DNA sequence: AAAATAGGCACAAACGTTTGAGCAAATCAG
DNA sequence: CTGATTTGCTCAAACGTTTGTGCCTATTTT
């Protein structure tokens, strides 16, 4: 596993380390190293497969050719896809990616960020838990190249790429209304994330705008780690005579799948007894017992755009903050009835 | 983003760097540093939030407290889950994880491995493309701590954790036979991976053992990047009168989903016209139009076991190679008819 | 009282780079 | 032929650690 060092080339070739370093970094001409010496060095380096030690280099230049990606959970398909696209895009520009999952936990997010900074990453992409205002603030104040994705802090101006949640939810609500459902429930997660809040607010506004009352009980929030029973319980509530929901919006694709599972178990017919839509798409929604109408969005593009902006930011540390929102797309299937 | 260094503590406290280093590494007593000095140093370090620079440390001690995970594709849910479990388990032992996707590409796998070695990872977990015998051999010869998962090289003795493919496929074949299907097709990917080969061989053997002929056309292999049309085409072939398959085994969960999609489109009734099983499980198989019978396996456990073995190997560079195979579980649903 | 031991720390090299400054020899200008 | 410039390289510090050796003083042993 031993790899050759500058020192070894130096003694072998009887040429100083600096000369070698200059040549190998393409500064040979600039430093007026003779053609002969340059060739000799380059040949020797190639022949012995010299690779500069990135640690030593990083230690001195303060850069690492790595970008860090801090995310809630790599086993979340949404983030896994983004990770892949970030990695791909970064690689095209010669950067490597290090990532770290935080489990939506503030302490672990802090640790991850610190660890990445310690390792001299050149920039950060963060899907924050939104509980870590401190670090995000610190990073922006220090003008550290960074872009937030999916989750942002309302009070901090940063680069950001996310979704047009409002447009997406509007489409869902209006689709349900068009299919003849007025009493529409909204099930979301009990997490204080801006994305989720935007979705909730957009639901309420769109309902009002269309003259649909949002009755008490129409909105249900589950814990992040809810059980199947929890889901059944809230569906039961929304179906009760006093509430009588006829359509359901699930604010994430995972909730939607869980919801369908509960509806199946409770023997509630979709779409007859209950129309269902999902904000967010999963691969096999089309294969479900009743194929699910859902909002899809360009996941890979989020990662790519984030890298684009980050690279810009790394070039120009004083660049104007950039926000980018991807539009979503309504994929109509059968879970709200047919036209 | 500036962080305090040993040097700065040294000048501030008028104590040599070495003393500080010893104290902060818990070797103060051993090095007979007086209680007073130790306290002073520790307090100052805590107050100024001193964190040793991992690069500098790694450069000199040759270790990094990182383990590397090389995998085909992080957006593959199977590997994403493993990644998560590796990360979790490694963290419990104070290690960080760096990962890199290779896209099943030999060159990229080589690059990833080299890059990780350059960064002084203390050990490697590799889900290899199985096209990189050279590196794997080199690593084992150099006694570099490593464990292969899911994919292995028949000719190289390494640590390995994978699945009991033979047992899994046997269960599937025999389940189909028990459900009255004798003419069973097998669709897999046209990739030279040991796991896939094991599955194929096990299929053939189990068929023979149960007196079922494996006719020409029963076995179909698709390209990794096949289209929906490709899938429909091979299903059409297997359904042709001369072949007349009554049951299908898909050798991966992704193939299974694609297969179901094709069957739906072709209006072939499951299980009446075609019984279907999947080797490998996906989250929403239970929500499908006809819930899918599948082999499930302990994905997270693969990652955990790999970390366990790797840590052992890092402790004892000469340990005996360990192979571990997880058993699979048959989850019976409705895609082969009811009992 | 001299020698040995213990206590408490500092020195300096090492890891493998990068980089500004500088130096000797060769070439040029006048 | 002298001084200036160019050519071709070397020196050494720096990045932030770790670690073996060694030094000085104080205490104990003999």
Automatic annotation (TrEMBL), chains A, B:
GO MF annotations, alphabetized: DNA-binding transcription factor activity; transcription cis-regulatory region binding
Every HTH lacI-type domain range: 4-61
Keywords of the record: DNA-binding, Repressor, Transcription, Transcription regulation
Keyword Phosphoprotein found: no
Pfam families assigned to the protein according to its UniProt record, in alphabetical order: LacI, Peripla_BP_3
Entry-linked InterPro entries: HTH_LacI (IPR000843), LacI/GalR-like_sensor (IPR046335), Lambda_DNA-bd_dom_sf (IPR010982), Peripla_BP_I (IPR028082)
Protein's name according to its UniProt entry: LacI family transcriptional regulator
Protein's organism: Seonamhaeicola aphaedonensis
């Amino acid at each position: 596993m031993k790899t050759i060092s500058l020192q070894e080339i130096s003694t072998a070739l009887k040429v100083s380390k600096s000369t070698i370093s200059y040549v190998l970094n393409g500064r040979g001409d600039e430093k007026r190293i003779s053609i002969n010496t340059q060739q000799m060095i380059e040949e020797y380096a190639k022949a012995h497969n010299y690779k500069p030690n990135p640690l030593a280099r990083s230690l001195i230049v303060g850069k690492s050719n790595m970008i860090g990606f801090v995310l809630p959970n790599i086993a979340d398909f949404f983030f896994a896809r983004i990770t892949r696209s970030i990695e791909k895009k970064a690689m095209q520009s010669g950067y490597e990616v290090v990532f770290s999952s935080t489990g939506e936990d503030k302490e672990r997010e802090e640790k991850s960020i610190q660890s990445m900074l310690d390792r001299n990453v050149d920039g950060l992409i963060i899907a924050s838990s939104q509980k870590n205002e401190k670090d995000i603030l610190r990073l922006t104040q220090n003008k550290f190249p960074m872009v937030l994705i999916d989750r942002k802090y309302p009070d901090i101006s940063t680069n950001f790429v996310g979704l047009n949640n409002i447009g997406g939810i509007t489409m869902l609500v209006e689709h349900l209304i068009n299919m003849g459902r007025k009493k529409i429930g909204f099930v979301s997660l009990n997490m204080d994330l801006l994305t989720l809040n935007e979705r909730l607010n957009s639901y309420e506004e769109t309902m009002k705008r269309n003259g649909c009352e949002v009755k008490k009980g129409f909105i249900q929030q589950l814990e992040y780690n809810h059980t199947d029973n929890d889901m059944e319980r809230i569906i039961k509530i929304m179906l009760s005579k006093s509430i009588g929901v006829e359509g359901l919006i699930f604010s994430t694709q995972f909730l939607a799948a869980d919801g369908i599972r509960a509806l199946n178990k409770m023997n509630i017919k979709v779409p007859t007894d209950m129309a269902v839509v999902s904000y967010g798409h999963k691969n096999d929604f089309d294969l479900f017992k009743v194929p699910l109408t859902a909002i899809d969005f360009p996941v890979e593009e989020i990662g790519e755009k984030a890298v684009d902006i980050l690279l810009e930011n790394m070039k120009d540390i004083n660049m104007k903050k950039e926000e980018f929102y991807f539009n979503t797309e309504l994929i109509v299937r059968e879970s709200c009835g047919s036209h």
